[in-house]
Specification:
This protein has a single domain, classed as Response regulator (Rossmann fold, 3-Layer(aba) Sandwich). The chain has five helices and five strands; from the N terminus they run βαβαβαβαβα. A five-stranded parallel sheet has the order 2-1-3-4-5, with helices on both faces. The longest helix is centred in the N-terminal third of the chain and has 13 residues. It starts with a strand and ends with a helix. It comes from Kouleothrix aurantiaca.
Amino acid sequence: MPKILIVEDEIMNRDMLARRLAWEGYVVAIAASGEGALSTVRDEAPNLILMDLGLPGLSGWEAARILKNDPATAHIPIIALSAFAFAEDRTRALEAGCDDFEIKPILFKRLLLKIDQLLLGRLQ
């Protein structure tokens, strides 16, 4: 089953997503910071990343940009997760290299559809 890395500093959000994704059959890895995301991606080799944008320290925007500019990790799809709901926030996330954008609070069924769409061609 595909591995999803959840990058989220809020423990309740992180745990809720991890439990729901595990229930759906995904293998879950977790990082609580942008810096943690960079090392976890290299250690865990996830198939997809759910990246909170409002991380302390190295932001999700910065972490996504670093991952997408590295040939070793550029192929990994990233779905940005953000409470920022303005169109410019979505644009900024996509410009940083995120493949999609989901507004918090997360509608889990919609998130699952996005995950499935992004993984479909990459795992065949």
